[in-house]
Write a structure and sequence with these properties.
Elements: H1 3-13, E1 19-23, H2 29-37, E2 42-45, H3 48-57, E3 63-66, H4 75-78, E4 84-88, H5 91-103, E5 108-114, H6 127-135, H7 137-140, E6 145-152, H8 160-180, E7 190-192, H9 199-204, E8 209-212, H10 214-217
Length: about 220
């Protein structure tokens, strides 16, 4: 099955309100262009340098999502064009995104990343940490950032019950934040959770955005 066929199959199998981010990290431009020529425009990358290179080399109407852990000193590379930063996990990073967005005369959409997995290797806020940020004077002063929702990564496990609980936890966090802090902000509506192995389960638990790579493009190319 071709890349566009695989994308079409996924898009047709998920609800209309759920956005598919085709995760193209480590994949060559040819693969992205195959998807692009098949009509797809939303791609996710996890390394700023690779994302910048692909942005420069590929058509400019692509909607690029930064889905990986982002270091503050790398924000400047992507601030002029990135559509959504999924993994915002500190006030330091928010400050830098706001600063670089200002320089580029943009408002950058961001998701708060939450640590929902049973693994220490994953990044993200706890709910109290996120609320502390939201309530801070610093956060209130950010004019070039728009928080549009939350993101999380489930534990890498075959235990579906555990994954389900973690997704339910992220949905609970989203609901808490929406009710307490973002009730009047229509843009705060995204729950980015679910990848190739668990996106169907994530959608059942309220995901509005799934990040699917290997199901579309095949296994990752670590040599790139």
């Amino acid at each position: 099955m071709s890349i566009p066929q695989k994308i079409k199959e996924i898009v047709n199998s998920i609800p209309q309100n759920v956005k598919l981010v085709a995760v193209s990290k480590t994949k060559p431009n040819e693969d992205i262009m195959e998807a692009y020529e098949g009509g797809y425009r939303i791609f996710g990358e996890n390394k700023p340098q690779e994302l910048t290179r692909k942005y420069n080399e590929l058509p400019k109407d692509i909607e690029w999502h930064m889905i990986g852990h982002l270091q503050s000193n790398k924000v400047k590379y992507i601030a002029s064009f990135v559509s959504l930063i999924h993994a915002v996990d500190s006030i330091k990073l928010l400050k830098e995104i706001n600063k670089q967005a200002q320089k580029n005369n943009r408002i950058i959409d961001c998701l708060f990343q939450f640590h929902i997995a049973d693994e220490q290797t994953k990044f993200g806020f706890s709910l109290p940490e996120a609320e502390e940020v939201i309530n801070s004077e610093t956060f209130k002063g950010f004019e070039n950032i728009r928080i549009t929702g939350v993101m999380g990564m489930a534990t890498f496990t075959d235990n579906e019950d555990q994954i389900k609980k973690e997704f339910q936890n992220l949905k609970f966090i989203f609901d808490q934040l929406k009710t307490k802090h973002f009730q009047d902000i229509n843009e705060f509506k995204e729950i980015s959770m679910g990848m190739s192995g668990d996106y169907r389960l994530a959608i059942e638990e309220g995901s509005t955005m799934v990040r699917v790579g290997s199901t579309i493009f095949g296994a990752r190319n670590y040599t790139v």
